[in-house]
């Protein structure tokens, strides 16, 4: 069987307003979800957890990220690994761009993507 590849361009992906001051574009593969966040200064991600492993990569800005009992101010190039079922939250100290990768696929985000088509 040959390799099957799908190509996408983020400019063609719908941006979703998910929380006040927080927009996201989702890409879903068979096993992962990629979330491309645009977050305005002052935006808050409330404390939550999920059964997915999450890797957050800061592209731009400063974001105060709390994972479990540890809090860090993340800047460009910083990466946080959030294990499944660990509470985490954050606040944007400036405008931010962040990429989150989730494993396995976030079915709740797949549904949200489909709802907004």
Could you walk me through the main structural features you see in this protein, from its secondary elements to its overall organization?
The chain is mainly beta. It has a single domain (15-115), classed as Jelly Rolls (Sandwich). It contains 1 helix and 10 strands; from the N terminus they run ββββββββββα. It has one helix at 107-115; strands at residues 16-19, 22-28, 33-39, 44-48, 53-60, 63-67, 70-74, 79-82, 88-92, 96-103. The strands form 2 sheets. The protein has a 6-stranded antiparallel β-sheet with strand order 1-2-3-10-5-8. A 4-stranded antiparallel β-sheet has the order 4-9-6-7, with no helix packed on it. The mean pLDDT is 95.
How are helices and strands ordered from N to C?
EEEEEEEEEEH
CA radius of gyration is 14 Å
How many domains in all? Answer: 1
| Strand order across the largest sheet | 1-2-3-10-5-8
What is the percentage of strand-forming residues? over 45%
Number of helices: 1
3D shape? globular
Give me the CATH superfamily.
Answer: Jelly Rolls
What is the fold named in CATH at topology level? Answer: Jelly Rolls
Largest sheet: 6 strands, antiparallel
* Class from helix and strand fractions: mainly beta
Q: Could you name the CATH class?
A: Mainly Beta
Q: Uncertain runs with pLDDT below 50, 5 residues or more?
A: none
Mean pLDDT level: 95
Question: What percent of the residues sit in helical stretches (DSSP H or I)?
Answer: under 10%
Oligomeric assembly: single chain
CATH architect. name: Sandwich
Number of strands: 10
Domain Cupin type-2: 36-102
Organism: Candidatus Methanofastidiosum methylothiophilum
Protein name: Cupin domain protein
Pfam family, one: Cupin_2
